[in-house]
Write a structure and sequence with these properties.
Layout: H1 2-16, H2 21-28, H3 32-44, E1 49-52, E2 58-61, H4 74-82, H5 91-107, H6 110-121, H7 140-149, E3 151-158, E4 164-177, E5 180-187, E6 190-195, E7 199-208, H8 217-231, E8 235-242, H9 243-249, E9 254-257, E10 269-276, H10 279-289, E11 293-297, H11 299-316, H12 325-333, H13 338-343
Helix pairs in contact: 2-3, 4-6, 10-11
Length: about 350
């Protein structure tokens, strides 16, 4: 409905400040012409909205003007409560978010308050990984404060190779990916991303941080993650797999079929070229599939997997393989005591 769209435009400008017509159109999924018509309708209705020209122009509300926000509808309430406070990961931030939701619940009409309570009873968010090791987010509130206040931040950080470094950075934003939080910051060497759980110590400095005018956090994150995926070293393996094993492997690994001259009519086996992160991961998968996976190449991996399988076979038959079968049979045919005498 147009009334809902006009209200959404008002709230966007009220919460975001100046926005271009293109940004508003993308957020509301309408055309730029529709945005222009709606802005004219708002202006005609007495809403002080202005169009600013130039490279940094756009639409903006008069400073100090605010509108009273009407009550939430059911869809908005469900969407808000889906973002449970425990998603934040840090206990202090989760507690503050919980208090905010409690205040919201108290302000709701009784019918919606009952609906909200029902929604919360039917949703649980578990932020721990299957390994059971949670992220250490003790530094998250302090980092968040530095980001919000636009203050330089001193970091003592542990790299992936266990090297400890100290940095003074300009914090630009926080990104949550699954249960992990990342700080995006500008350093003298350029933009960098720091995993919050690896920050051992942090201190907010008095100097204001320097934020590039055209910096967009979402665009930076998308670009940097794509570059990471492209630059990440891949270990390519050719596997001959039983059909059911191939079906399990294909959904989570990048694979491509390989045509082979042997067994052209064999529909129970397929040959795939598979990309793994490293040799250890490929070895783990090949051994996990057991006789349903045969390593074709590289030769070094094939030798390791075959050696591991042979060692496992010997261990599984350890009680029978200490004495050769011929010697055990000959010992049973000797008179009592003679076999032991000859063995000594």
């Amino acid at each position: 409905m147009r009334a809902d769209r006009l209200l959404s435009m008002l709230l966007l400008l009220q919460g975001r400040g100046r926005l271009t017509g293109r940004e508003i159109a993308e957020r509301l999924e309408v055309s730029a012409r529709t945005v222009h018509r709606d802005m004219e309708a708002l202006s005609a209705a007495g809403v002080p909205v202005y169009a600013l020209r130039g490279a940094r122009g756009g639409w903006q509300l008069d400073e100090g003007w605010r509108t009273r926000v009407p009550g939430l509808d059911s869809a908005e309430l469900r969407a808000l409560l889906m973002a449970q406070p425990r998603v934040l990961g840090d206990a202090r931030l989760a507690s503050a978010a919980e208090r905010a939701i409690d205040k919201l619940m108290a302000a709701l009409p009784s019918s919606m308050r009952e609906q909200a309570a029902s929604i919360r009873q039917r949703l649980h968010v578990d932020t721990t990984g299957w390994s059971g090791a949670p992220e250490n987010l003790s530094m998250l509130p302090l980092v968040q404060e530095a980001v919000a206040r636009d203050r330089k931040l001193f970091l003592r950080y542990v790299k992936a190779i266990r090297e400890r470094v100290e940095r003074v950075v300009d914090p630009l934003g926080l990104v949550a990916k699954s249960a992990a939080w990342y700080l995006v910051a500008r350093t003298p060497a350029g933009f960098r991303t720091y995993r919050v759980s690896r920050i051992e110590d942090a201190k907010i400095l008095d100097q204001p941080s320097e934020r590039p005018r055209d910096f967009d956090l979402a665009s930076y994150w998308q670009t940097s993650t794509e570059e990471l995926r492209k630059s990440k070293r891949r270990y390519e393996v050719t596997l001959k797999l039983a059909k059911e094993a191939a079906e399990k492997l294909e959904p989570w690994r990048n694979t491509s079929p390989v045509s082979t001259a042997e067994d052209p009519g064999d529909s129970e086996w397929v040959t795939l070229r598979v990309q793994f992160d490293d040799e250890e991961q490929a070895r783990f998968v090949a051994l996990g599939f057991g006789p349903r996976a045969v390593v074709i190449e590289p030769e070094s991996l094939r030798d390791r997997v075959n050696s591991d399988r042979a060692a496992a076979f010997r261990l599984s038959r350890g009680g029978e393989s200490r004495t050769p079968r011929r010697l055990r049979a000959r010992s049973r045919s000797l008179p009592p005591g003679e076999g032991r005498a000859r063995e000594t």
